Amino acid sequence: MTGLDDPILPTSIAWGLLAAFSVLWVVLGWWLGRRNKTAEDHMLAGRNVGLALATATAMATWVTANTTMTAPQLALQLGVWGMLGYSLGALGLILFAPLARRIRELMPRGFTSGDFIRLRFGTFTWRVFLVVSLIYAFGWLVSMAMAGGVLINALAGIDYRVGMTVILTVCVLYTLLGGLRAVIGTDFIQTIIIIAGAAFIAWLTIDKVGFEAIHFNLMEERPELLSLLFPAAIMFLFNNLLFGVGEIFHSNVWWSRAFAFGRHVGFRAYLFGGLLWLPIPIVAGFIALATPALGINVPAADMVGPLVAAEVLGLTGAIVVFIVVFAALASSLDSLLAATSDLVTRDIYRGHIRPQASEQNQFRATKVIVVLLGLLTWLAASYRGELPIVGSLAELLYFTGAFVASAIWPIVAGLYWKRANPQGAAWSMILGSGLGLASYFMIGFYVAALVGAAVSLAVMVLATWLAPRPFDWDRLARDDTQVMGSPA
Amino acid sequence: MTISTTALSIIVVIATLVATLTPILLIALFIRDWKKGCLW
Could you state, in order of their start, the residue ranges of all structural domains in chain A? Predict the structure, then answer.
């Protein structure tokens, strides 16, 4: 447990906040989803989400507990480049903007990223992709649930398993009741809470401490944090960029939104979402640089944000941080639950188990799968120390780096390269993930994504160069509605 | 080579200003979409 000796928020207040926001999210989720009648309503919110909700959901989903808690930690450990490097995670959203437009054009009736891979590259590549995608999705789900338990424990002293169970149950409940409509609706409010809270704390830190004092004290005590030539920080920047792009390009979290956004909304929503997300890690991270000026002793680096907020604002700061963290966790967990249950429903249940499943069957299945996913996540997060790999948040996330990075090039080639070889796409993911994992264990966590992406690119290019396979793009829209289990 | 106080303050103030204006922008977009009937 990474908690502090003394929680910054009284447990009774934390329980009150947890209860109030849990009720709000669940009631809102039920209300938003009350008109869902089909699997398409539930999974894609009617396929006509407007710009405001689309931009907010892109931002909220990408603002995880990592953004609000790890950005200050990185600023404390890697200085200016730590917070600037984290903010470059926005490039993943920005670069996905043209892909979102192309996805919507090519597959106006598509449901999941698996649908695209199946129609574009065939069964073998589809199955490889599902393995890669589900490992990543489950890893992210478990890491978010673990983050919930750890942060609630650290902030308010509530037992890890109790906090984790509460946040997971709330997210499962409202995702179950309202599907993607509930996820997107709550994301809008959560985005506003997160950004307003982070900006509020930043302004007060600037006002109470000031840049002169922050700069002077850093120069005295931690001058390396102000250095623009900090090698470890520059390496982090590159690794983070690649990891973020891989996460967004392949994950059904982002594809399901591309299918759900209105026809001309996807490009602008991801572009605006990325541009507006860009400053958040700087705002959240900057406050960590004030620790020398404030004379704060930081016992656990990942708790520096809440510590500074509590120092500057007292109880109000602790409350603001708690609400922001809860909103950030919920906004990512709900999106993952919804998108992963869609992927399992469409690509595993309908794709492999019941190809003739009706709309109603899928509607029911997606709800059962959300609950099962929640239970599985709870089990893994409950017994985190006793499972292989699931040791810490960072270990788990870096472990998935090899998988996500190896999927970047098959996705890009699949969308834009007419002659991309389907077998090459499968082997680029297999070899990219395999060698990326080997480098994770043999060299270090920081090269897994890099090796995965490099090997994947080499295999994809080589296979297509040796054996090009021309593809008719119109087939994606034409075959979009074909019966599953009979791929191209 | 270290970042100056001025450069640090410019980066942070711009980022905080954008973050402050973002909720207002999102609410304005929400109202626009709602009035045009294209929220969902």
Answer: 11-392
